[in-house]
Amino acid sequence: NVTSFEIFSLDYNSALDAIYEQLAAEGVDPTRCGGEVPISLELDIVDLPISYTENDPPTPLDGFLDLQGSATTVVTSATVTISGYVPNQDILDFSNVGTVTGIFDDATGVLTFSGDGNLTQYQTALRSVAYRNSSESPAETPRTLQVEVVSTETTTTDSRTLNVFAVNDIPELTLSQTNLEVDVDNELQRPISLDPGLTLTD
């Protein structure tokens, strides 16, 4: 019988790995040793809000996002959900990493990564996620980016607040024509429109 473990690390995940190694060395199945040995999965995202101003380049969810687990962890999927999603404005960019591929649903505002992968692959994929807004008049309603990571054993979640700021753009006048012809000798000439196709945008 296995009665004790010699563990000298204060790191939880390293301790779990040491338990597995010691059990394996003694020919013991950890799932039959008084119940299952838990496999840790932990997601850590910075607490500071994201600030996005109209026409900014894509802004990362968290370039230093940290995903931790045991050496045996297999991640099966992850989602990034925009709570307070505004269709036709909010967009999440991302990169595929190895077997981990993503798809952004512009109807629901949910980015889904799928495919069995290790912690490094999913961490890299989630670090690639960036927010942008395609509107010249973005809604300033509060949003939250909610992240969920699922492994074969457990699930972990975290979130980050997103603040969007619109900009009062300088009005822009556009003429559709550059020449205006007037017959100064014709006293009966009707009034002439300066430019029927003129547009003014803000």
What is the C-alpha radius of gyration, as a whole number of Å? 28 Å
Q: H/E order of the elements?
A: HEEEEEEEEHEEEEE
**Which band does the percent of strand residues land in?**
25-35%
Helices, by number, come to: 2
**Share of helix, binned:** 10-25%
Distance from N terminus to C terminus (CA atoms, Å) equals 77 Å
Bulk shape:
elongated
Strand order of the largest sheet: 2-11-10-5-8-7
Structural class: mainly beta
Count every beta strand, where a strand is a DSSP E run of 2 or more residues: 13
- Biggest β-sheet strands, sense, barrel: 6 strands, mixed
What average pLDDT do the residues reach? 84
Low-pLDDT windows of residues: none
Describe the structure.
By secondary structure, this protein is mostly beta strands. The protein contains two helices and 13 strands. The chain has a six-stranded mixed sheet with strand order 2-11-10-5-8-7, covered by helices on one side. The chain has a three-stranded antiparallel sheet with strand order 3-9-6, with no helix packed on it. The chain has a two-stranded antiparallel sheet with strand order 1-4. Strand 7 (101-105) and strand 8 form a beta hairpin. It is elongated. The model has no long low-confidence stretch (mean pLDDT 84).
